[in-house]
């Protein structure tokens, strides 16, 4: 499974931000990404050393970052890797939800409760809709609990299946 590292993801975001605003400062990039300026500095130095970004002095203390053609190719590749990784995670979660719903049906239920939020819970909701399983607020039906990428079933006696 292709999975983007945090480093690759951060490189992708930095390249996108520079493309949107070549006059962005390390401080503004750090604030947008919620990381330390030193982290941005480290990434930029790496991107410059590898030839993906060039830096030009515009004023005495002002720099402009320019993405090179190689940097544009890297951004495209990282974007594709990110999309592929996202779809693999989507398929993994969907498969786990279908497995859980099969177990719920085997238990004699056609509805569930759902405990969780975020993207994984959204995939769960869509899969339930697709599979014809209703999401209700009825304590007598099994509870699907979302924990990270895990999908767990709890029946009305709170036993985890």
From TrEMBL:
GO molecular function, one term: DNA binding
UniProt-recorded name of the protein: HTH crp-type domain-containing protein
Record-annotated HTH crp-type domain positions: 16-69
InterPro entries referenced in this protein's UniProt entry, alphabetically: HTH_CRP, WH-like_DNA-bd_sf, WH_DNA-bd_sf
SUPFAM superfamilies hit by this protein: Winged helix' DNA-binding domain
GO-annotated biological processes: regulation of DNA-templated transcription
Source organism of this protein record: Bellilinea caldifistulae
SMART domains: HTH_CRP
Pfam family of the protein (one): HTH_24
